């Protein structure tokens, strides 16, 4: 049944469970399976009853006890969950999964001391498990113990160096501790794992700039700009560094920055106008005329429409005397001059040479 449930054949699995219980109502495994199905159906009370009935039939059924603990944990019945897992801990000494479940429950209860003790016990049982070390690091960080958090996460990184979140945390830790050169090492690893993520390349250049190597930082920003030419932040740093270093490229990058900002503003304006036009077109749908296929076709419909429009009223013409204003004409357009095609319109190129440095980022 469990294999059918894992494949998504819930109805067939439930049918097998019901068949097994009809043949033997004391079938412990069938009760456990029924509880799992009920839990997946979000019927917590029925799931608890099924697991308890399985334990009534076999008090040493570890599957029923473990699943009952998980169900109580899901239902936030934390004391009952602790009771289940402590019973399992007596039955299965030094089981990593049971110890981690106990630690997780204490973590939910915000008992950091007990959670750290149990996660440390689990770490001693499985010292190469990076997830346990990561959990310990999170709790230490919540307790404002940065050094212990770093040590645990650094050990986790040694066993799983491809975890991007761990790499980012270590790099940020070194950067916060004013070790920019060490932070560069981990940001470079992150850039290797995610080469199309501009954040890592920008952080490498930023750390190099903080370390005081401005020329290398300028070269790194140039490389980032070559790969991501539309990024405004990169252009701002290029303008600032080239100006501070007195490089001749300062005006060129300033011109590129101005053009990029204009393009960005135009794009935002275009998106805003497009959103307004869509909302306007949606509102104007209600004012459209009635389509031909919705006009009255039958005789009764036409009669109802005629009665509604009062077509049966006699026609009466309105008469009045004609005065001089009716015989006069005034051109509403006014005088129209002949277009002058002989004179060319002067064109002017945008000039960026006389830029002011006041727009540069501080």
From TrEMBL:
Listed Basic and acidic residues bias regions: 264-276, 334-348
Show the GO MF annotations: kinesin binding
| GO CC annotations on file | centriole; ciliary basal body; ciliary base; non-motile cilium
Q: Which UniProt keywords apply?
A: TPR repeat
Where is the segment annotated Disordered? 264-300, 322-362
Q: Which InterPro entries match?
A: TPR-like_helical_dom_sf, TPR_rpt
Q: What is this protein called?
A: Uncharacterized protein
Q: Which organism is it from?
A: Pristionchus fissidentatus
């Amino acid at each position: 049944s469990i294999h059918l449930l894992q494949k998504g054949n819930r109805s067939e699995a439930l049918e097998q469970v019901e068949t097994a219980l009809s043949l033997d109502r004391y079938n412990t495994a069938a009760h456990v399976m029924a509880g799992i199905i009920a839990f997946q159906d979000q019927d917590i009370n029925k799931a608890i009853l099924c697991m308890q009935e399985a334990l009534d039939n076999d008090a040493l059924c570890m599957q029923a006890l473990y699943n009952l603990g998980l169900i109580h944990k899901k239902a936030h019945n934390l004391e009952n969950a602790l009771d289940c897992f402590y019973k399992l801990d007596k039955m299965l000494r030094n089981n990593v999964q049971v110890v981690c479940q106990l630690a997780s429950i204490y973590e939910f209860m915000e008992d950091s001391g007990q959670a750290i003790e149990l996660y440390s016990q689990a770490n001693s049982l499985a010292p190469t498990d990076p997830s346990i070390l990561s959990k310990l690091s999170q709790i230490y960080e919540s307790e404002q113990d940065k050094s212990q958090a770093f040590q645990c996460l650094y050990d986790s990184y040694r066993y799983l160096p491809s975890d991007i979140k761990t790499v980012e945390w270590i790099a940020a830790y070194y950067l916060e501790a004013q070790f920019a050169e060490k932070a560069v090492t981990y940001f470079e690893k992150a850039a290797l794992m995610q080469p199309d993520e501009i954040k890592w390349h920008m952080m490498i250049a930023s750390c190099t700039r903080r370390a005081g190597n401005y020329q290398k930082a300028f070269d790194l920003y140039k490389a980032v700009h070559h790969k991501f030419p539309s990024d405004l932040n990169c252009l701002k740093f290029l303008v600032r560094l080239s100006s501070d270093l007195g490089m001749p490229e300062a005006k060129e990058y300033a011109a590129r920055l101005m053009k990029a900002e204009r393009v960005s503003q135009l794009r935002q304006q275009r998106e805003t106008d497009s959103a307004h036009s869509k909302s306007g077109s949606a509102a104007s749908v209600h004012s459209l005329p009635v389509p031909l296929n919705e006009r009255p076709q039958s005789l009764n419909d036409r009669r109802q429409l005629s009665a509604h429009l009062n077509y049966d009223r006699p026609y009466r013409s309105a008469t009045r005397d004609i005065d001089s204003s009716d015989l006069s004409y005034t051109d509403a357009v006014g005088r129209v001059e002949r277009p002058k095609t002989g004179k060319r319109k002067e064109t002017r190129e945008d000039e960026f040479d006389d830029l002011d440095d006041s727009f540069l980022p501080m």
